[in-house]
């Protein structure tokens, strides 16, 4: 059974940084992608970033490009999302997911429970 457990969320001032972690377990993740999505109150869940299990070819939503960095550590089965220069509009619940990849939710079959990120102005 695949399990994804996120951590690292919290409250931060605008301009600050946070690093989210997602520990994956329950299967071999070779040939799968890991992604981060977020959902703000009253809005649909949206794509943030994704990376292949090999750690190459990360891709990002335009809204976070240049500020967020996704990385994947095979040895620890952990995917990270380093978030810098945070803005109030980054406030959301952040979800980790795994599947065949892409920027659509339909590309991911397994999801974590989410971690809250709140950015104050």
Can you walk through the features of this model?
With 121 residues, this protein is mostly beta strands. The chain is built from no helices and eleven strands. Strand 5 and strand 6 form a beta hairpin. It is globular, with a radius of gyration of 13 Å.
What secondary-structure arrangement, pairings included, does this model have?
Blueprint: E1 3-7, E2 10-13, E3 18-25, E4 33-39, E5 46-52, E6 59-60, E7 68-73, E8 78-83, E9 92-99, E10 108-111, E11 115-120
Parallel strand pairs: 2-11
Antiparallel strand pairs: 1-3, 3-8, 4-5, 4-9, 5-6, 7-8, 9-10, 9-11
Gross geometry: globular
**Portion in strands:** over 45%
Number of helices: 0
Order of helices and strands: EEEEEEEEEEE
How many β-strand stretches?
Answer: 11
Could you write a compact summary of the structure shown?
The protein is built from no helices and eleven strands.
Give me some keywords for this one:
121 residues; mainly beta; seven-stranded mixed β-sheet; 0% helix; globular
